[in-house]
Amino acid sequence: MVLSYAQAACRALEQAMQADERIVVLGEDVGRGGIFGQYAGLQARFGTQRVIDTPISESTIMGAGVGMALAGCKPVVEMRVVDFALCAMDEIVNQAAKNRFMFGGQGRVPLVARLPIGMWSASAAQHSQSFESWFAHLPGVVVVCPSTPQDNHDLLRAALDCGDPVIYMEHKELWPLQGELQATAPAALGQARRWREGRDLTLVSWSRQMHWAAEAAQTLADEGVQADLIDLRTLWPWDRDAVCESAARSGRLLVVHEAVQVAGFGAEVAASAAEATGCRVRRLGAPRIPVGYAPTLEEAARVRPAAIVAAARELLR
Questions:
Q1: How far apart are CA 246 and CA 259, in angstroms?
Q2: Residue 188 counted as domain residue
Q3: What is the pLDDT of residues 127-180, one digit of tens each?
Q4: Cβ of 70: how many Cβ atoms within 10 Å?
Q5: Which one of the listed residues 127, 153, 171, 211 is annotated catalytic?
Q6: 274 occurs within a structural domain
Q7: What is the model's pTM?
Q8: Mean pLDDT of 179-195
Q9: Calpha distance 33→55 (Å, rounded)
Q10: What is the mean predicted confidence (pLDDT) over 115-123?
Q11: pLDDT of 184 higher than 90
């Protein structure tokens, strides 16, 4: 079955809601399917008591979700895009993430917060940000970044079963991506996936940047360089074993992400692998600039396959 990234997530959520009546959805415009179609048809199927349209108040939406989770529900909280979730940071950071620890496990917050990340063409600086490293830095939450329709289906099901707050970060420009959806075993949070095998270089990425990393890996293969291409899929927990095993074999690690390079999660991956294996490392991310509206300014913030190839060549010297 071929489905889009958005349809795959919608299918996963529909299956989960059918199996577990505790799962509810709340957010702006979810009743009409969400701005990317990721909730299409769910309100008609499950009613307005389980697919709940809310006012435009992100702190209220997230706070209600935390309260519902503590009361026994399993809410899916829709923030539309991660940029808007900044209005709900207290509820995420000081409430959802801390409750289990502060109350000795008496309360759990089995909440999935959908915070779409990444550049959104012609949407400028306030709608094109990638904040995954913020949340990976936050104790008490799981961070997921699916890159394919299959992963968006499987990892959303895993997130709903997690039992702790999950920051679920789909990419704003992956929603129309088509892919074959196959019946698979349940996905494991914290388990990376190898896209292609190689011995010369370990190449690590996630989310939309994986697709450009794959293009770069093919260009390198045409030049005789075989990259071991790894999709982290979840940033916390992340698959240290898979990355370090590959880096130990290749002796070289290049971590690529769409987010700003300064203090990005690539630094954590690179430092951990270097400490564990002694491999050479290189990071590649966006410059520390706001994403511009003008096409030329927007392009300056993108990490294209050509830049990945150039960084790989430099690391191989």
A1: 23
A2: no
A3: 999 999 999 999 999 999 999 999 999 999 999 999 999 999 999 999 999 999
A4: 18
A5: 127
A6: yes
A7: 0.97
A8: 91
A9: 16
A10: 97
A11: no
Active site residue 127: yes
Average pLDDT over residues 280-306: 97
246-276 pLDDT per residue, tens: 999 999 999 999 999 999 999 999 999 999 9
Domain that holds residue 311: 193-316
Q: How far apart are CA 236 and CA 296, in angstroms?
A: 34
Question: Would you say residue 153 lies in a domain?
Answer: yes
Residue by residue, DSSP assigns 270-292 as: HHHHHHHH--EEEEEEE-SSPPP
Tell me, what CATH number does 222's domain have?
3.40.50.920
Same domain for 159 and 20: yes
* 124 in any annotated domain: yes
